[in-house]
Design goal:
Helix content is 9%, strand content 13%. The protein is mainly beta. It has two domains: 1-50, no CATH class; 52-96, no CATH class. The strands form three sheets. It has a two-stranded antiparallel sheet with strand order 1-2. Strands 3-4 form a two-stranded antiparallel ribbon. Strands 5-6 form a two-stranded antiparallel sheet. The termini are far apart. The mean pLDDT is 77.
């Protein structure tokens, strides 16, 4: 959406008299990737295109749909969550979800 007051339900490219260049992101300053509320697709917390790294194995490409974990780590959490909340791994000492042997998914 381009504006909220007055409400115009078109993108910057489709605005009358355009195409117009979207403003830069208020967080990262990148221009041309406007999503909503002054934030680009990478910075907006609810953007469908936002991607990040898995906090457990550092795999790139996670999204909000998988609770910001890769699908392997998400399955690991589902499988071993009944063994406790996690803690430091016996081998690498990172604080993540652990199996019965106190080992993380990567070890």
């Amino acid at each position: 959406m381009a504006f909220t007051v007055p409400r115009i339900d078109v993108c910057f490219v489709c605005l009358p008299g355009g195409p117009h260049t979207p403003p830069p992101c208020t967080v990262c300053g990148r221009s041309g990737f406007f999503f909503h509320q002054g934030l680009c697709t990478g910075c907006h917390p609810f953007s469908p295109d936002r991607r990040d790294a898995c906090p457990d194995c550092y795999a790139w490409g996670t999204s909000a749909a998988s609770r910001w974990r890769c699908w392997g780590c998400l399955d690991w959490h589902r499988k071993f969550s009944r063994h406790g909340p996690g803690g430091p791994c016996a081998w690498c000492r990172r604080t993540v979800a652990l199996n019965r042997d106190r080992a993380c998914r990567m070890c």
